[in-house]
Amino acid sequence: MRVRRRTNLLWGLALLVVAGVWILNAVHVLPEPIFDLLVRAWPVLLVLVGLSILLRPRVPLGSALALIVSLALVGGVAAFAFSTRATQQREDYRAPVFQTVDAEVTLLRLQIRTLATDVELLRRVGTDRVITGQFVGSNESQVEITYTLDNRAADLAVIEHQVNQFPMLEDMGRGTLRLELPADLALDIDLQGADGGVTLNMSGLAVERTNLDLRHGNALVSFPLYDPLSSGPDDLLGTLAVRDGDITVFIDPQMAARLELNRSGSGIDPVYDPTIYNYLVGDVLEARNIETAAIVVRYNITAPRGRITIREPL
Questions:
Q1: Which residues of the chain carry a pLDDT beneath 70?
Q2: Any domain includes 279
Q3: In the chain, where do the E strands start and end?
Q4: Cβ contacts of residue 80 below 8 Å, gap of 6+?
């Protein structure tokens, strides 16, 4: 009697996949970061073989189940590895910022775009019209700095780009951006961040407008005791939006603020001093001295998943 030989199709398929990966890498079709991740995951093949031997004779579709478990293991380990590396602060790449602002400039429009980066803006010590700072991060980041003149206004853009579509695991990590701004220059600030803490310590600065859009992270914003020259008390001076995180705003009690809150039905009550602010219908905080204050500012504050806190300066 002839005995039918049982073969394991899964093992052959695994060998074909391994061979295919090496061929694609050899002809430079497979991105290097993906190849690196697959090489790191090779022990999963041993798990696949072991599960196949154990499950195939005992469980229907045992080989398929072993493949599913192995793929899930690879995905879980890869996600854990990338998320862990993404939280680590890196110092592999540095981009200094040094920009002299022309004497005829009366307004500086500052545009900042960051990825996984903590950002800090503050007043520069001294009277010279120079913007200084530095970006420090991983080799997977590249910072482009441009400065242009437009009549009596200037535009300074600090833009962070990701070098590779698929980053190398060992090159991943968080960055920091710190900028020191001159005190005697009117500022229009526009900051967009993907992930990271933001500290806008604007005390002593001549801030005309501020727009902040932070996707994930917490923000601390300290408004200067300054009356914007290019707008009136009824003009909206910007939006401070933190999509997934908390925002704390420090406002000097000598300055009256009208703050239009957008909490998107989160149910998280704002924190404020009721002796300084009235809570109005429409989710609005308005300073009690708004009719008599010499300086009045108006902002929209958006925090759909976090808490909005209004405090006096420390």
A1: 1-15, 17-18, 21-22, 24-25, 28-67, 70-71, 73-87, 166-172
A2: yes
A3: 93-100, 107-123, 130-137, 141-150, 153-162, 175-181, 186-195, 198-201, 206-216, 219-222, 239-242, 247-250, 255-262, 277-280, 284-287, 295-302, 308-311
A4: none
Measure the CA–CA gap between 33 and 169, rounded to whole angstroms: 7
DSSP one-letter code for 89: B
Note whether 75 and 97 are same-domain residues. no
Do 205 and 107 share a structural domain?
A: yes
Q: Phi and psi at residue 226, in whole multiples of 5°?
A: -145, 135
| Whole-prediction pTM | 0.78
How far, rounded to the nearest angstrom, does the alpha carbon of residue 49 sit from its chain's CA centroid? 41
Q: How long, in residues, is the chain?
A: 314
Can you give the pLDDT at residue 91?
Answer: 84
In this prediction, residue 44 carries a pLDDT of 64
- Domain total in the chain: 2
Last residue of a domain, one of 62, 86, 110: 86
Nearest to 308 by CA among 188, 189, 299, 87: 299
What is the greatest pairwise CA distance in the chain?
Answer: 105
pLDDT value at residue 170: 63
What is the per-residue pLDDT for 86? 59
157-194 in b/e form (b: 16+ CB < 10 A) is ebebeeeeeebbbebbbbbbbbbbbbbebbbbbbbebb
Are 67 and 116 within 8 A, CB to CB? no
- Residue 79 counted as domain residue: yes
Tokens describing residue 263? 């909490």
Please indicate, yes or no, whether residues 144 and 262 belong to a single structural domain of this protein.
Answer: yes
Domain of 82 in residue numbering reads as 9-86
Note the pLDDT of residue 1. 45
Whole-angstrom distance, CA of residue 297 vs CA of residue 255: 8
Q: Is the distance from CB of 61 to CB of 9 less than 8 angstroms?
A: no
